[in-house]
Amino acid sequence: MSLKTRLLPLFLGLFTATAAAAAARDCGPQALGVAREIVIDGGQRLALGLETYPRTLALADHEVVLTFDDGPVAGPTDQVLDALKAECARATFFLIGRHAAEAPALVRRIIADGHNAGYHSYSHPARTLRLMSDESARVDIDKGIAAVDAAGFGAAGPAPRTPFFRFPGFADTPELVSWLEDRSIAVFGADLWASDWQEMTPQAELALVMSRLEAARKGIVLFHDPRGSTARMMPQFLRALKERGFRLVHLVPGRGPTPIEEAKPGWRSATEAIIAKTLGPKGQRREPQEGRGVKTNDASPR
């Protein structure tokens, strides 16, 4: 990997930090804000998030990382960004490439507001990347990376601008994870989710995600910014985090070390059980991993 390619995430992290510092001056102590940042070094071959992988970020008690999938979509994504800006909060957005191409102004706003514009494939295939050929899946991933970077920065560069990727439906394969890790792209799952792919009121969603956070006490949280219930709930959610003593941690790409915490003994993958139920035997991961198995009967994440 060239020196220019390795330094690109560092320069992007400095740009994001500068933008966020400018925005933070507009917020007072009543805002949630960002308590600290964690540097994500994809060179460590990271696959993180306890719902899928047996390791996650080493967060302190009551520390939370906010992530959003499937955007950007005009309307609800704007509402989510407005809510985050009002609280000087920052998050990581895993964007679908075709959505980014349709709404480049939203991608540029995500970046200008100090958030990360990560990747979530180009097409978010209904049959999942796992059920595609390895070659076709790689093409879809690279096309998504190029679309997001073109929308956000005017052109795709020699390497991903923000080397963070999340598999649609968490349906990875060992080969694709290894391929991304070889390119120093960090793979993210989640530690808990809001289940906002299900129909519910904003009040019900708020109660559900806060109950899960109170039980877990920390973690990488997954939302979907195109969901109307999530967009309407977000101001209340951010205020609830502040009121209940949770602190926001923001991710920035750069040189590590990235602090990692291994899963507790007896860990089992929640997402593999869901994927097996959704896709059947053909959707089973071809290479077994230690500790994978049944953990929850929650409906499938998207």
Automatic annotation (TrEMBL):
InterPro entries: Glyco_hydro/deAcase_b/a-brl, NODB_dom, Polysacc_deacetylase_ArnD. Keywords: Hydrolase, Metal-binding, Signal. GO terms for biological process: carbohydrate metabolic process. Residues 275-302 are annotated as: Disordered. One of its GO terms (molecular function) is metal ion binding. Residues 62-249 form the NodB homology domain. One of its GO terms (cellular component) is membrane. The keyword Metal-binding applies. Belongs to the polysaccharide deacetylase family. This is Chitooligosaccharide deacetylase. It comes from Methylosinus trichosporium (strain ATCC 35070 / NCIMB 11131 / UNIQEM 75 / OB3b).
